[in-house]
């Protein structure tokens, strides 16, 4: 799945622009003669397509980018890190990928998740499918993300690189936990705005909660969400967070301008006592291990700036 689910992706407000080069790419692929493979089957897939941002993140940090990705044209808008190579082909939306283009690309393997599983019957007629799901009922996302890194390491023949990345990630979180020590007394409220009257609150169980737990920080929102890790609430419900340290990963300028004219918003303790809340740089809300690391960095950067 792509980063923002359920518009089924409600946060993707602007729809999906069709890349101008897609038709030309497809035409060239269909016009070119296919070369039949000869000899023994490939031991490892080398042409992998992904319908999910988090799985693509994992391939990138393992040094083996996918050749094609659903919603690739919106990577910089919703994910940003790690950078996506410019030559990765866009497959259209994750819930309705361009099957004709995918067939022309002739992938060795297509990566899916539970969220995009409805596309598998069509895809499986043209390529093997591997379903690797991070966001699902039971458990929390970060341990599942670690396991997908290991599984992709096995698929790609990069087991040692996968284990080295995960070991380095453990060291990274340990260092971040030390940075977080001065901020452990104040609960943190993580928001993502849908409109001037409604927000997502990142909650348990979710990747953001996993990150807060790794940092030893408190979540100001004690209610639970569902397995994507958020609850959708009205503005008035945010009063439950009290005088938390609030920050947002998504607050477009028009929403921010409206909020700053709202008596209700201005009366909320975390806004009244602390001023306008910081808006974090782009970070994948429903990403993999690289997204968890980026969340940790951005949260700590915001806290340190406020304390300076």
Automatic annotation (TrEMBL):
Broad class of the protein's primary localization: other
Similarity comment: Belongs to the bacterial solute-binding protein 8 family.
PROSITE patterns: FE_B12_PBP
InterPro entries, alphabetized: ABC_transptr_periplasmic_BD, Bact_iron-sidero_bind
Gene3D superfamilies: Nitrogenase molybdenum iron protein domain (3.40.50.1980)
Organism: Mesorhizobium liriopis
Fe/B12 periplasmic-binding domain ranges (all copies): 47-308
Protein name from the UniProt record: ABC transporter substrate-binding protein
CDD domains membership: FhuD (cd01146)
Compartmental location: Cell envelope
This protein's UniProt keywords: Ion transport, Iron, Iron transport, Signal, Transport
């Amino acid at each position: 799945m792509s980063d923002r689910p359920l518009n089924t992706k409600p946060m993707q407000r602007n729809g999906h622009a069709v890349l101008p080069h897609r038709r030309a790419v497809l035409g060239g692929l269909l016009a070119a003669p296919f070369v039949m493979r000869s000899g023994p089957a490939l031991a490892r897939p080398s042409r992998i397509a992904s319908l999910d941002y988090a799985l693509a993140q994992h391939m990138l940090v393992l040094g083996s980018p996918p050749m094609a990705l659903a919603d690739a044209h919106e990577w910089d808008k919703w994910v940003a890190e790690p950078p996506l190579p410019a030559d990765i082909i866009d497959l259209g939306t994750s819930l309705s990928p361009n099957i004709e283009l995918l067939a022309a690309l002739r992938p060795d393997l297509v990566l899916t998740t539970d969220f995009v599983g409805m596309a598998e019957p069509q895809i499986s007629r043209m390529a093997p499918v591997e379903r690797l799901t991070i966001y699902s009922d039971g458990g929390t996302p970060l341990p599942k993300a670690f396991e997908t890194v290991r599984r992709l390491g096995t698929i790609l023949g990069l087991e040692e690189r996968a284990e080295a990345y995960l070991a380095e990630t453990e060291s990274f979180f340990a260092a971040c936990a030390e940075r977080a020590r001065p901020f452990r007394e104040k609960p943190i409220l993580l928001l993502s705005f849908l409109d001037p009257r409604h927000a997502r609150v990142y909650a348990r169980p979710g990747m953001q909660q996993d990150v807060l737990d790794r940092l030893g920080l408190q979540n100001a929102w004690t209610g639970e969400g569902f397995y994507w890790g958020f609850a959708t609430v009205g503005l008035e419900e945010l009063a439950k967070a009290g005088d938390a340290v609030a920050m947002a990963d998504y607050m477009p300028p028009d929403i921010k301008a409206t909020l700053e004219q709202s008596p209700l918003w201005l009366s909320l303790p975390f806004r009244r006592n602390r001023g306008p809340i910081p808006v974090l740089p782009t970070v994948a809300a429903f990403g993999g291990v690289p997204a968890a690391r980026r969340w940790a960095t951005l949260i700590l950067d915001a806290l340190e700036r406020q304390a300076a």
